[in-house]
Fic family protein (Neorhizobium phenanthreniclasticum), 512 residues
Amino acid sequence: MAHEQKKPFSDAVSVFHGRWLPERALPVGYAALIDAFELPVPLPISLAAIGPRHKIYQADGWKLYTPRHQPEPNLTGHLTFALRYEGLDLAVLKSLFQVTGPQPVTEIVRAAPTGAYARRLWFLYEWLLDTRLDLDDAAQGSYAPVVDADLQWAVDGTTSPRHRLKNNLPGTPAWCPMIFRTPALDAFVARNLGEEARRLIADVPADLLARTATFLLLKDSRSSFQIEGENPPQDRIQRWGQVIGEAGRHPVDRAELERLQRIVIGDARFVHLGLRTDGGFVGEHDRVSGAPIPDHVSARYEDLPDLIDGLTAFDRGARQLDPVLVAAALAFGFVYIHPFEDGNGRLHRYLIHHVLAERGFNPPGLVFPVSAVILDRIDEYRRVLETYSRRLLPHIRWRPTDRGNVEVLNETADFYRYFDATPHAEFLFECVARTIDVDLPAETAFLRAYYSFKAEVSRMIDMPDRLLDLLFRFLRQNDGKLSKRAREREFAALTDGEAMRIEAIYADLQHP
């Protein structure tokens, strides 16, 4: 049953839903619609308002437009403003359509049957709600895109003759996160980081590259455990490293994710394997009562099969987007859904490797140690996760269970289907860029120096690999000099001349 608008569109304000504006201004677009229809959705990262100045500027999570941009104070005016200037927020639009019902959208289309914004609203209503409005197929109007590719990343898409539109949405109604175009993302995509990496290793000898790849793989595996606060034995790190090394070889679907979870968990005596059959949250428990204190509430277990199917369809379908954009949406979307009782974090990072490898982004056989970079930037990583979870949490109604878990009381699936993955894409691009700009050259240079050092010293002295490794490590730890302790103990057999020559070999390799 459709409901009327709950309250009039607001006047100019200084504070909107707890968010201060840079100056007193009139909320418009999505902000106005959320307020007037009391939509139970997270506020978008950036909101729009009409300010008193005659210039457009951004500050404090607001973009202020000039008085000449002010829309008509009605549903059509604010919807048109939102599509024109703010892009698509599918969660807001679906919630709005559920409140208004079909009549207002039908009237908008009948009033402007050839209008591109009217036809986009018509398409989105039918696409999001899986229904058909009482409208004849469009007979006129040039084909316009559903997604404004100047505002948000889109695919080439398919035509919708009924609406005379190009459906260039990157996902399906079951799962479709959106990513805004930003100067940072435009610059990263233009760099073509995958090609940069291939050029970087083009002249690295094959045996050295193989050793580099092995080291980076283990580094990523170890870091992924450390992010979760675990310090497992070396054989478990190596096993997970082997799994990461095979990323991209198998399509990701529910069965594959469950197979990977079994590998991640290992000893499953105390863990339920497969999709959750109960609530889930990330956070703490009260020390006295054991009650949950969530920082993030996971998707309802009843919604998990559809969400995972939607997520895997996105992975198969978003082929025209840059692989890093897809990896960010897929991996962070997965961790927000949190489909398993345990193992979500490592699988979330595995999905990054899956997309990059499956799309041929990394050079063959080489894994970018993204988890190692995330570990180095762990505070920023958590802030990126919170860009959505903090806005989401107030809109989830839950109660504690007698087992210290949460039971979600409202419909929440759309919150996990449609989220803004822009901060996540920027963060992941920064991580991938650092592996190419810093980690890959540094590791290759280190191994080149290491094996050259061993070869040079071996020509001087017959020394087992174990001692050669120790010798190199001591020199690294002591600025290229053998300490008095090392000369008196492990390497007492070296003459002064040999020690000086070894130090010179090391110095030459560090500063060729």
Remarks:
- The two ends are 76 Å apart (CA to CA).
- Residues 13-100 form one domain.
- The chain is about 50% helix and 10% strand.
- The first strand starts at residue 13 and ends at 16.
